[in-house]
Amino acid sequence: MAECGRVRLFAVCTMCAAVVALVGGSAAQSASTSHLTLLYINEDSFRNYDFLSETVSSSNVDWPVTLLFWNNANVNKAKIFTWTGSTMYGRMNNGSGYVWDSDKGSKDVLCPIIGDAHHYRVYAPPSTDRMYNVSWGYWVFATSHIDHNECGFGSYSGYSDRTENYVATQFANAGYSVARDWASFANYEPYRVQGDHIWSNDGYATAIRLP
Amino acid sequence: VTLLAVAAALVPISDQAAASSGNSPRGVRVWQVGDAPRRELISPRHAVSWIYRLPEGARQGSGAWYVLRLHVKIAVKHPTRSLAYLSASTSGWTAAQIELKAVRTRYGRLLTSTSSLGLVNGLVKQTTLEKVFPLRFANYLQRRGVKGGRNTLKVGIESAAAPGAISVRVLADTAIVRTRTPPPSLSLHVTWRAHASPHVGAHLPIHWRVTNRSTLPAFDVRVTPVFDGRDFKTVGSSSSVFERLDGTRQGTFTLLPLRSVRTTLFVRAESPNANSPAAAIAAVVLPRQSSSKADDWRVRIAGALVLAAGFALLFLRRRSHG
After folding, report:
1. Nearest to A28 by CA among A155, A120, A185
2. Which among B196, B198, B263, B192 has a CA at the least distance from the CA of B226?
3. Which of A34, A44, A76, A83 is the most exposed place for a label (fewest CB within 10 A)?
4. Higher pLDDT among residues A74 and B309, named by residue
5. Is B276–A128 a contact, with Cβ atoms under 8 angstroms apart?
6. Nearest CB to B94 within list A45, A76, A138
């Protein structure tokens, strides 16, 4: 009987640990930045970070905008990975007022126990899924990060540069025109740890031209 | 009955298309598909392109603007499974991206939705039960899509649908047009009593004037004051909306300062097919003025009482001396 109880206790503890790991891996904690601003291009504008909720606040940010898809882009065309993650919120204005767009993003691994998943979220007004101006054509923007050991132990998220480069490489390998670190998006984040956020971004976004 | 209701909700696409084309800016047709020896049928695996020439030194927006006028006939035979995209580009720079989606209704008919976005008409969504229907679209070319000399207009479809599910014929009046009309461009002018700081509880009128500098109409223009709700509240209308804006409109917002604060408030004009100008007002709201009528009466009554008390005192003294 005692043996049976021990096995049951072990099973319960294992399940609890698994749940904690899963929940801990997917729950997003708020982070803060001192570089939150609006960027303008012709009649369009957007925030240079995405948010944990529909509140514009420098203490409610998730990740910096690191990718610009342009010329003939839209949200669907910019996403290349199979999986999605949790929902975050981008803020923008294509001339008809500031709107929020929610996105789960595009992710190459669902929830890694060991290793990295590359995850980027793509934003555009929900009514159009793209914006247009005479400088960038049809365009959308994206934030990026890696999720490390997301469903394992010692999980963290961050290193926006790495996923920016990884996504850029995927598009470059597929024959698209890619301009790495094309322009400053005023969101330089030197390496720093803030809760489960590991900031690392050079502040320059990569532009990927969709034909 | 349901089918009739669905049909009634549908926009007759030909009428809408005609209306859209009416908003295209007037200009000189630089080149049109009809000038080319053949008209083309496009399918997802078969994009078509034409060569045309622009004058040497042609640039987008330097006195002249170049606009794509696309006129196509779309034929849908099967559902598209997912979104299909009809695109048109000039020398590789996209000026038209039109979403197409065809689904089969529960009555077995094909229902096709289209969604286009551009600077001439903003976002235009249409649906039709027709299997073959025309679509007109106009948009200002990208800056990079305008250069002197030889240019290429390319029209193609991206679709995961089965071969033959969707095909597009580019009609002869598809053209590149040169116009002096810029894209709808709004300017906003705001005036208020800058010489006197507003006080808590006293109305603050803000006069605004919004002008569309283009001869092309700006649609669904909304003018709104933007402020911290702890600092002000609007008295009366909190926004002005114009379905179509040609020329100038003006109006007044009246704000009621709620607390003494140094702040910046904005008036913003927005339109789906134009820019979004904003005007900032730096305001220093002073505490409530104590010269209201109620206060005046209190002072007057107090004065009258003091006077009456004085007279009474004098009167009593005289009597006591007398």
Report:
1. A155
2. B263
3. A34
4. A74
5. no
6. A138
